[in-house]
Amino acid sequence: MGERDVAEAGKPAPAALAGGGRSRSGLSLIERLALLPPDERAACLAAVPVADQWRLLNDWRFRARPAQLAPEGDWAVWLILAGRGFGKTRAGAEWVNRQALMTPGCRIALVGTTLHDAEAVMVRGESGILGTAAECNRPLFLRSKRELHWPNGSMATLFSAGEADALRGPQFHAAWCDEIAAWSRPREAWDNLRMCLRLGRRPQAVVTTTPRPTAFLRNLTKLEGVVLTRGSTFDNRVNLPASYLADMEAGYGGTALGRQELAGELLERIEGALWSRDGLERCRMAPEGPLTRVVVGVDPPAGPGTCGIVVAGVDKAGKAYVLSDASLPDAMPDSWANAVARVHAEHQADCIVVEINQGGRMVEGVLEAGGKRLPVKPVRARLGKVARAEPVATLYARGLVAHARPFPELEDQMCGLITGGGYRGPGTSPDRADALVWALTELMLAPGAATPSLRAI
Question: How does DSSP assign 332-347, residue by residue?
């Protein structure tokens, strides 16, 4: 609820709550109110007539986080792409109830993955339409007809995304689509639905979903008229058990599954990539015994820029472990040279493997200037980054490399290297991945290394 809503209740909004639900803090108005000192909180409530205080404290616009409130402006689709437990269902249900209330006689489509999902989650769920509707605006659910009827004549109809043809005949003012990333036939169902949205001055659709790396969802985020809201499970921590959040962070923090299902990231699966996210998830393992060698791989930038710094080691059985990604973005030479020296000391590394094509000699110079005489092994790239990475990807395929923990930025770059050449990952260069390649090449592929049967680069 914003300043205008409080004014509608009888008095102007208190200064402490001005700005409404668009607070940059990400807190709802009720959370902001709760954080005020007792005297300020009492003053804020005193500005609202007693008869209206209970109503205001239970109004969704007062309780919602800013990201759960419909965006301002002229939009066609509000896409909420967020992790589990973010409050997507509540946001969708509250939006539908408000549309029904504010536009008497309107027609709304409710599209779920299946009819069962539409009923169980969107209508009857704890955060669904029936559970969140105000007593005076609660609709009647006619299950046999798959319809909701509000007291003012507004009506909603349930649809299954798997039965796209059912959306050919009707027409609507608004629609709510839930878990669109899980729809079996998303393109057909979505196209039919959009052609049905032709009533009223500005038909709108709300889409709530946990992301999945589908081409349809990626394209949807780029369409004109789509306003995108992103969010994480942890944005809703005030309403989720602390033990649940701790378990999720401990079990899935930084993993591809956690980034998708909890952080709400739309992770791409790139055709022809040297590494896959599923494959990297399967190679999580910390060293069980002492390591016989540890090296630091460095891919230095020619000037200011990201310096790839990756630490890896190998055990007596010949298995390699990626131990750390200490890469520095936008770092000057003295900064990343100091970072290299630090991780060398922390991991008691044998040597620092540095590519000299891009100013690697500078590392030696900066280290020496700082009084740090460390064993630096310069290497020169004779092949492109992808060609150098291909033998290392083979090591992963053979189960000879493990990651001691998730390394999200590094793994994003690895999954962007394309077989045969090319890079489609984040940033302009796979600097972290290149540092990894140099470290593992030294440990596993160089002459006299753990696996000399594979050719050295």
Answer: -HHHHHHHHHHHHHHT
Q: Using an 8 Å Cβ cutoff, are 307 and 388 in contact? A: no
Confidence check: pLDDT of 304 > 70: no
Please tell me the pTM assigned to this model.
0.64
According to the model, what pLDDT value does residue 278 have?
A: 84
Q: Determine the residue type at 95.
A: W
Predicted pLDDT at 353: 93
Better-scored residue on pLDDT, 171 or 457: 171
Place domain 277-445 in its CATH homologous superfamily: Ribonuclease H-like superfamily/Ribonuclease H (3.30.420.10)
Q: How far apart are CA 454 and CA 457, in angstroms?
A: 9
Around Cβ 434, how many Cβ atoms within 10 Å? 24
Same fold, 70-239 and 277-445: no
Residues 88, 127: Cα–Cα separation, whole Å: 9
Partners of 141 in the beta sheet?
148
CA 375 – CA 373 distance, rounded (Å): 7
Residues 291-303: what's their mean pLDDT? 89
- The stretches of 370-456 forming alpha helices (DSSP H) are 385-397, 408-414, 431-440
Sorted by where each begins, the domain ranges of the chain are 3-62, 70-239, 277-445
Tallying the residues shown for the chain, one arrives at 457
**Domain 70-239: CATH architecture, name and number where available:** 3-Layer(aba) Sandwich (3.40)
Predicted local distance difference test score (pLDDT) of residue 426: 83
For residue 243 the two structure tokens come to 């033990």
Pairing of strands 226-231, 77-82: parallel
